[in-house]
Write a structure and sequence with these properties.
The chain is 24% helix and 22% strand. It is an alpha/beta fold. A nine-stranded mixed sheet has the order 16-15-14-13-12-11-9-8-20. The chain has a three-stranded antiparallel sheet with strand order 1-6-5, with no helix packed on it. It has a three-stranded antiparallel sheet with strand order 2-3-4, with no helix packed on it. It is globular and about 65 Å long.
Length: 372
């Protein structure tokens, strides 16, 4: 039984605007007061007064609450290519938002200051109602909203409210995710989320995920992707190549083959260069030669649009026509500097229709950068 001091603290917490009843949970029949969270594939069993693995969902008196509803740590205008989404409304600008916490424990996380925060160390951020997010997107001329920087699945309650409102104003909604959402969560987000970048690490290698991420069964990510596909969401796949420990050729071969067989050969596949971060600062950046070798393997397995990320100026930042080889989109980092495709995304030389959803949206009228 909780002490009066604990009860008082939790009662005060429930008065905060960013603390809301959680979705996708159930009481545990044989454990009075315990709950099971069904938001991500960890499906945490949470004792009274305790948090889920993500650090942002808490069992208060036998009910599950989210503690980060609208508690934002960032609000930026980004090019959609930064997500990276190269084939979904290219040239768009998206208002990017994040909270704290994550259901993964990546030792190499580049956003560890927010993603690896656990609420035992204190909440932080600025409370922003959904209406304010959507208004900011409209006022800055953004084309949509991106849920990113930390794992968006863990603040799905807020995403749903923001995304519903954004849809009413004609804005697109995209997310950058580790792909560990449950089928129930995908079912809820699917009507509102238009596109997702699903981030693999280490080629999806099981031992890599166990040792460096704290996830025992990365194969569940594939189920999430299939559910997203079946709901009609646009999907691009990334894979962070961590040198020495997460750069096995057989893993990239297997992942590439799965993408071809389940999503199609023209699915964009991004191989991302690792830079030292967080608890893995002892490793060097991924050699470009390693990325190029793995890119060739992905192409050998049938993938057409293979990109290398975090290497500005590399030829594999660009998009080429699968039929005639013409360079149809030229990029420098996350910026489009030349766009040759027709309005319906056909190659101007041979007429081949590329696998791109949505029209090109140049950024002439967009303000890009930090809002606060």
């Amino acid at each position: 039984m909780a002490s009066p001091k604990t009860r008082s603290s939790e009662e005060e917490l429930l008065t905060k605007p960013y603390v809301r009843p959680a979705i996708l949970w159930e009481p545990v029949k044989d454990k009075p007061g315990w709950v099971r969270c069904n938001l991500c594939e960890r499906r945490c069993l949470i004792a009274p007064g305790r948090y889920g693995a993500c650090g942002v969902r808490k069992n208060i008196n036998g009910k599950l609450y989210t503690l980060v509803y609208g508690l934002l740590t960032a609000m930026n205008i980004d090019p959609i290519e930064k997500k990276p989404l190269f084939h979904f409304y290219p040239g768009s600008a998206v208002l990017s938002i994040s909270t704290v916490g994550c259901n993964f424990f990546c030792k190499f996380c580049q956003n560890w200051e927010i993603s690896q925060s656990r609420l035992e160390k204190g909440l932080y951020g600025r409370y922003v109602p959904p209406e304010e997010v959507v208004n900011a997107a409209l006022e800055t001329g953004a084309d949509g909203i991106a849920y990113t920087y930390n794992e968006p699945t863990i603040f799905l309650e807020y995403i749903l409210d923001v995304a519903r409102l954004a849809k009413k104003h004609g804005l697109i909604n995209v997310m950058v995710t580790n792909g560990y959402a449950t089928p129930e969560a995908v079912e809820l987000m699917a009507p509102y989320i238009d596109a997702a970048t699903v981030d693999f690490k280490g080629g999806g290698n099981r031992e890599f995920y166990k040792r460096y991420i704290g996830v025992l069964d990365p194969d569940k990510i594939f189920n999430t992707i299939l559910a997203m596909r079946d709901h009609g969401m646009w999907i691009e796949i990334t894979n962070l190549v961590v040198p020495k420990v997460g750069d096995k050729e057989e893993d990239i071969r297997r992942l590439s083959r799965w993408i071809v067989e389940n999503l199609g050969p023209e699915t964009p596949f991004h191989l991302l260069r690792f830079y030292p971060h967080y608890k893995m600062r002892h490793l060097p950046p991924t050699p470009v030669e390693t990325l190029e070798r793995l890119a060739n393997i992905a192409k050998d397995e049938g993938l057409v649009h293979v990109y290398i990320g975090n290497v500005p100026g590399h030829p594999l930042e660009n998009t080429y026509c699968p039929k005639c080889g013409l360079q149809v989109i030229t990029r420098r980092g996350v910026w489009i500097v030349d766009y040759k495709l027709t309005k319906d995304n056909r190659c101007p030389r041979c007429g081949y229709k590329l696998n791109i959803r949505g029209e090109y949206r140049g950024r002439k009228n967009h303000f890009l950068g930090l809002l606060w």
